[in-house]
Every structure is written in structure tokens, then in C-alpha cells.
């Protein structure tokens, strides 16, 4: 059989055929409706009309304040006694960016300075004045819990800005939500009204430490899972310390492109403990006081998606979404040409083949004549 070069260099073009078949028409309209709903959902609900970007993290500042009244909690009646500190003594360091550490257990020892020594001016590790913790010390504070730490209040201030947009805002101008660790259940709503209710001069969001512990699913009196914890003695998170990561997520308010909201998403980092050692040089006698602190470390991370209305972004989303309508046509054509009993008839109606001979175009009507003959025989 000779090879037909015309089929190799043939050109295919579209042919419009109106198929008056109720089955196909209903299926086609249903698919169109589903795709249209999806387009509206994407553009409106997912805010495809915005020119978005990730926020540039600003400053995060956390301050602590002691409650007006403190009761003696039950854990102070155990083997480890309690001591009661002010907010400045509990938070270490007192001002930090992006994280906050609050002491829950502490031990303090004072190491006397050898006569005639200055531990800051030692010339070598073998110098007798080189400071090394030794048994020659005075216990200023035996191992103790910080009493009532859960009732202390902390104020969180944070801000963000845009890089490609002109957005620059602090949390005092936005509404927020504190979620539980599942990221879905609301623990507390934050508005300007709620901020001023807690403190008329508040610049940030005020929570008790217990609020963030509960929201993150942490319990200071639960057995610690940290590798370094004394599990045989039943050491708790109050003793070993704990790390809680808090993600602050920012986004635009739907239908209000000039307003932003944020959410706190706290979660315990399982298996982590946290401690820090504070060294204090006493200038009067040259002695050194070492405070061994264990406690709660809150680590903050800012992310999300913020944006402003942009017509080009809206147009791009519309064009990309409308292209999905072709999917409805493709599905219906597959059903028409592959699954319906009349698929052969529809295929012959949809596709015609032309031949160019000696300056004339001929249309292959063989299939058409075949069906005409079949209809005549049936009649």
C-alpha cells in the first residue's frame, strides 16, 4: 500500500457542530456551573485580586508584669520550695527581640574572689585568678520554683511591612486571634476594645502566661519528655524548662483590602528543655554570682501573605480561571465520542476529511452516504 504523503502534511482545523442531545447538554451545563463556582471561590475567597507578598518581619517585643495579688500555688508545698520574684527578675534578658524567656526554676550561688584577684583580667587559663566554679561557694538561693508564674501577664507587640507594597503596620492597629495548637479552635479574640479593657494604655496584646500554655497544649506539671530530664524522679517541665514556638500569621481581610488581621499559632516543641546561666560580677568584693535558670522560652516567627488590590493580578486570575471552562468541553466530547451508543455517528459528524486534487477540494462524503443508505433501508 502506497504511503499517502498528504496525510503527513495535512492540516487540522476546528469544526463547529451543534449537538442537540439532552444528555450531553445537561452534563455540559453541570460541569460549567461547577467550574464557575470554583472560579468565584478562587478569586473572591482566596483573594486572587490581590498583589501579594510575604511580610517583612518587624520588631517583636515582649514585656512581663506581675499580678496585683499572688497566692501560694499547690506545687510550692512539694519537695522543691518556691520563691516569689518580680517581673524583671523572672524575664531574662529583660528585653529581647523575637523571643522571650521566663524563669520557672532557679538556683543561685556566690563564688568568693581569691584575695588580690580580678577575674576579668586573667592572663592565661593557668592564672590562679582564672574563674572556675568550685565547691567554695555560698548558696544564695537553693533550687526553687518561681511561685505563681502562670498568673503573670505578658504584653506582645509586633509589626510588619511590605517590600513590594507600601504596607507598614503594628498589631495595635489590627485585630487578632489566639488559636489552640490545632490551628483551628479559637482560644481568644483580640480587638482594640479588648486591649483597652485589659489596659487602657496597652500598645500590644495582653495574655497571662497560663493563656499561652493552655493554647499551646503545655502543662508545666506534666512529666518532661526532654532527653536530659530526670525521668526516674518524675522531673516536670516546670523543672526542666520548655520551648513553645508561636507563629504569627498575617493576611488581608476578605472584601476589605486595606485591613489586615493576624493569628497566633502556638505549639510545644516536644522533647525540648531550656536553661540559661546568668553570671553576675559583684564589683564591691569581686565575687561572682551564678544563677542557673530553667523556664519557658517563647520563640516567635512571623509569616503569612499580605497584599493590595491590583487590576493586573485580577485580570491574570480571570484569564487563567476562564481557561478551565474548556475542561467542560473536553469532558463532554470524551463522553460523546467514547461512551454514548451513538458515538460512531457523532464521530462522523464531527470529523470531515478533504482532499486536494488538480486545483479542486473534495470532501469525503462516504460516511454520510453510508448513513443515508442505512436510513433508507430502515424506512
UniProtKB/TrEMBL annotation:
Its main location: membrane. The keyword Ion transport applies. Gene3D superfamilies: atp-gated p2x4 ion channel. The chain crosses the membrane at residues 21-41. GO terms for molecular function: channel activity. The keyword Transferase does not apply. Keywords: Ion channel, Ion transport, Ligand-gated ion channel, Membrane, Transmembrane, Transmembrane helix, Transport. It holds the Pfam family P2X_receptor. It is found in: Endomembrane system. It comes from the Eukaryota. GO terms for cellular component: endomembrane system; membrane. GO terms for biological process: calcium ion transmembrane transport; signal transduction. Belongs to the P2X receptor family. This is Uncharacterized protein. It comes from Gigaspora rosea.
Amino acid at each position: 500500500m502506497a504511503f499517502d504523503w498528504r496525510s503527513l502534511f495535512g492540516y487540522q482545523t476546528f469544526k463547529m457542530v451543534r449537538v442537540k442531545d439532552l444528555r450531553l447538554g445537561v452534563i455540559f451545563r453541570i460541569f460549567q456551573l461547577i467550574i464557575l463556582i470554583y472560579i468565584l471561590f478562587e478569586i473572591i475567597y482566596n483573594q486572587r485580586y490581590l498583589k501579594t507578598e510575604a511580610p517583612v518581619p518587624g520588631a517583636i517585643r515582649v514585656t512581663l508584669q506581675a499580678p496585683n495579688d499572688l497566692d501560694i500555688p499547690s506545687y510550692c508545698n512539694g519537695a522543691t520550695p518556691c520563691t516569689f520574684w518580680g517581673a524583671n527578675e523572672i524575664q531574662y534578658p529583660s528585653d529581647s527581640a523575637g523571643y522571650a524567656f521566663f524563669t520557672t526554676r532557679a538556683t543561685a550561688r556566690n563564688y568568693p574572689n581569691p584575695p588580690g584577684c580580678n577575674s576579668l583580667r586573667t592572663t592565661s587559663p593557668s592564672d590562679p585568678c582564672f574563674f572556675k566554679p568550685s565547691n567554695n561557694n555560698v548558696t544564695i538561693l537553693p533550687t526553687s520554683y518561681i511561685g505563681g508564674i502562670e498568673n503573670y501577664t505578658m504584653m506582645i507587640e509586633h509589626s510588619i511591612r511590605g517590600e513590594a507594597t507600601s504596607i507598614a503596620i503594628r498589631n495595635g492597629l489590627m485585630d487578632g486571634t489566639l488559636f489552640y495548637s490545632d490551628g483551628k479552635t479559637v482560644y481568644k479574640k483580640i480587638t482594640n476594645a479588648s486591649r483597652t479593657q485589659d489596659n487602657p494604655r496597652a500598645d500590644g496584646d495582653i495574655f497571662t502566661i497560663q493563656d499561652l500554655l493552655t493554647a499551646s497544649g503545655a502543662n508545666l506539671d506534666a512529666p518532661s519528655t526532654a532527653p536530659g530530664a530526670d525521668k526516674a524522679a518524675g522531673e516536670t517541665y516546670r523543672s526542666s524548662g520548655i520551648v513553645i514556638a508561636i507563629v504569627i500569621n498575617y493576611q488581608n481581610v476578605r472584601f476589605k483590602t486595606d485591613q489586615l488581621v493576624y493569628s497566633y499559632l502556638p505549639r510545644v516543641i516536644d522533647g525540648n528543655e531550656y536553661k540559661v546561666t546568668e553570671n553576675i560580677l559583684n564589683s564591691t568584693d569581686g565575687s561572682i554570682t551564678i544563677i542557673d535558670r530553667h523556664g519557658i522560652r517563647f520563640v516567635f516567627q512571623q509569616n503569612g501573605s499580605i497584599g493590595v488590590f491590583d487590576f493586573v493580578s485580577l485580570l491574570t486570575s480571570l484569564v487563567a480561571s476562564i481557561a478551565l471552562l474548556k475542561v467542560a468541553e473536553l469532558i463532554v466530547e470524551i463522553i460523546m465520542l467514547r461512551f454514548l451508543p451513538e458515538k460512531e455517528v457523532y464521530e462522523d459528524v464531527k470529523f470531515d476529511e478533504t482532499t486536494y486534487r488538480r486545483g479542486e477540494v473534495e470532501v469525503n462524503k462516504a460516511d454520510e452516504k453510508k448513513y443515508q443508505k442505512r436510513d433508507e433501508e430502515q424506512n
